[in-house]
Amino acid sequence: MADAERAFLTNLLHTVGAQPVNYPDDYRQPPENTLRKVPVLPLPVPPPPARAAPAASSSANVTLTFKSLKPAATYSLSVSPADSIATVKTALAGQSGAPPADAQRLLLRGKALADAKLLKEYDVKDGDTLTLAIRPGVQWDPNAPSPSSPDASMEVPKLTVQQPRPQKPATETLALSAGDTKRKGHGRTPSIVLSPSPTNEDAAPAEIDLTLDTSENTFKEPPSAFQTTLATPEFWDRLYSFLRTEFAADTDSQRAFEDFLAASKSSLSASEIARIRDHVGVVGMAGT
């Protein structure tokens, strides 16, 4: 075989071998290629175990005996093992002559039973005897009538009514005034007078009357010659004209004018300062 034929066949085999093999739906593998079955030995299989009989229900009620030493008494009660110790105490408190549930203390073989635990957690059996005692520090009188007795239910709670304390006569006057009477253009804030009327021991609480005092007969000190001249807009106009002749820059003259005006604000009212600025034509910071 020539080398060219050998190379052609080799290339053809590689190409055909790389193609996927698709089998039809009814394809069956030849019997000689089928795996042999694993032989199964005929071993005897044991029968399934019989189902055990259901155990007795733990929720069946048990009868317990509660024995009290002080006072000497015996109680018999049918309870469920699934009940809590607090539930058992509540049921025991319903027995005649039994202490209330919050005063009881149950013991089993010298061990105190916790209220939050269940009765079956202590391996209590039917017919067992539990010791009933009173909690330390709890005062309980077995001869006292219980709240469920007819005599106790007929008791009416007593109501205590406290008489009101007598009030002493009082006269209070609160006067609120504001404003500077020395400044021109400022008015006086009306005063508020609180004058409750006197009361006696049997009278109801006094009502406070609010009266508004708007009287204008308040003494006002007449303005002095200094204040009168200082409040005249023409005075500040002449002052500003003088400052403009002394300073070369207009900003410097306005700065000097503001310094003089700021030094005199304690003797001028807001309306007077506004009239001065309107007349002179110099507006300060924020228009004031």
UniProtKB/TrEMBL annotation:
User: Hydrolase as a keyword?
Assistant: no
Q: Which InterPro entries match?
A: Ubiquitin-like_dom, Ubiquitin-like_domsf, UBL4A-like
Q: Give the Gene Ontology MF terms in alphabetical order.
A: protein-folding chaperone binding
The answer to whether keyword Iron-sulfur applies is no
One GO cellular-component annotation of the UniProt record comes to:
BAT3 complex
Q: Where in the cell is it found?
A: Cytoplasm, Cytosol
Q: Which UniProt keywords apply?
A: Cytoplasm
Biological-process GO terms, alphabetical: post-translational protein targeting to endoplasmic reticulum membrane; tail-anchored membrane protein insertion into ER membrane
Q: Where is the Ubiquitin-like domain?
A: 62-135
PANTHER family per the record? UBIQUITIN-LIKE PROTEIN 4A
Q: What is this protein called?
A: Ubiquitin-like domain-containing protein
Spell out the residue ranges making up region: Disordered. 136-203
